[in-house]
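Lecture notes, structural biology module. Today: joint structure prediction for complexes of two components.
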Amino acid sequence: MSQFAINLLFVGGSFALYIAIAIWARAGSTKEFYVAGGGVHPVMNGMATAADWMSAASFISMAGLISVAGYANSAYLMGWTGGYVLLAMLLAPYLRKFGKYTVPDFIGDRFYSSGARLVAVACLIIASVTYVIGQMTGAGVAFSRFLEVESGTGLIIAGVVVFFYAVLGGMKGITYTQVAQYVVLIIAYTIPAVFISLQLTGNPIPPLGLLSEHTESGVPLLQKLDQVVRELGFQDYTADVPNKLNMVLFTLSLMIGTAGLPHVIIRFFTVPKVSDARWSAGWALVFIALLYLTAPAVASMARLNLLTTIYPDGPTADAIRYEDRPDWIKNWEQTGLIQYQDKNGDGRIQLYNDGNDAKGQAFAATAAERGWAGNEMIVNNDILVLANPEIANLPSWVVGLIAAGGLAAALSTAAGLLLAISSAISHDLIKGSINPKISEKGELLAARISMAVAIVVATWLGMNPPGFAAQVVALAFGIAAASIFPALMMGIFSKRVNNKGAVAGMLAGLVSTCTYIFMYLGWFFIPGTASFANTPENWLLGISPLSFGAIGAMINFLVAFAVSYATEEPPKEIQELVESVRYPTGAGQAVNH
Amino acid sequence: MSNHSAKEEAYWKANLRLITGSLIIWALVSYGAAILFRPLLAGISIGGTDLGFWFASQGSILTFIALIFFYSWRMNKLDKTLGLDEE
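The predicted structure, tokenised, for the full assembly:
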């Protein structure tokens, strides 16, 4: 059987499974559409949350980014897990006690204002649509590879599939489907990693393999990798970063953003009890950690394998001939995500650092000495995880498996986000503000139309994404961090923050963060509209647009407190509402206070 | 629900104390050991690299899991002893 047929079999088979589950658990009422009837066990909910959470960014893109930058990008690992600590302690139990469907519901009630609710809806939509762009980018890469088409075509196919998939079911369908998706994606991620870890280090557990000896050279794996990349003029894999401020802020943005993303928060409305909301966050992180502890191993091993493929006799000897290149390079060339240009005309592939950074400049002389005329192969970061099994010569069923896993990750998150977007529009915007008398049927229709619009916009912007999948997703986190998280946290932990403070805070956080991002990455992400080149020299104090969410959150907190203390106290009944969400007693009827 | 009891006040204080303690550890492993203090820990080697690198790629994630389970266990116990759980 050809690789293409095997890919189709795995991807088709896993899809049939999800669709079967979605039909079996089809949402009947609006409540089921949004929150699955509130009867999901913490372990199941944790697993579904993990699938919801681990998107194309985690699965397809993250290890690739770590692979290229090494230690500096481990901010992704800490940021996307550390947020669960905030979620478990600062938000989940209280929001579960509050007991409504959506994030704008809470903000609207707690800040007793439809204005606050509308601002929350706007923040939610901007963050979620940005996030979906990242998913579409990732899903596009996966589809283009396994259908062997150009990446733009892959993206359009991804849009169509996501559309049918998300519109079919609501949360209930999605919860059980996502449990299945979690199982598929974690198997798909870990199996190739186990094989590769065995090949390179003899240790079957990838996180331990990362810390083991490289069997072939007898040197610890990470030291071996440092040596190889150094000889090609790259920065050491484990090298420390000069700009600690940016790394701290970036990690913080990802953490706060995790706790402010509506599709994750909404998960904690689906557990039966307040105590279960706490456990759910813990279980979710356990399931997420299975992938996140594997990712750094995948990243380093893939980098080493890639460079060994190109330089079979070591980085100081001759590189591989282009005509002898392995099949995986040929396959990815078809998608346009690997590009080769024989700059010095020797028929070989020289892959090295010819960049403008200090390391690249220092290496230029060595490169010239070796007769190299520039880096000849461009490998898109987002393909590394998907190509990993092929690079390591693993059997073709493993390659099919990883295609299915990558798509499971992209689809589950895209579906969860689209659900959050559609509920914000149909439930919070239309039912909550514009037309409170809308029928259940009308509300479901509005939900589905808004999903469709969101997919079209995200697919269009995904054609020229403002970065790799994980970077685009990181921007969404920055936006959520700056707008939604502070409002939720202040709503629970302060009785003094009032409607005016919350609205002013959210707007200040949202506007400052979006402005900073748009300045460098294009206004509303439309290509070619950036005001400044996105390079560290142009950044304010060296803070990258990806890291600005943490600053935005601080601005939000400061503005909200300043405005609240300058204006009147919230009314008595709101202060009582805040009291009531703090204690688990009577969670079932929190709405009736 | 208006006149919250001394019991509820004590519960909230205990919760805030527990959160503060947990978040200090949360910050120490991630922002501390993995980023800011990495140069200080460079002398301690683990599996071919230094302790800071390990915290950045594995140690902090493991600590986060432990923190959440510890917090959930303590709070759920507190809910029960103070009779503030849902039953």
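Point to remember: Strands of chain A lie at 338-340, 377-379.
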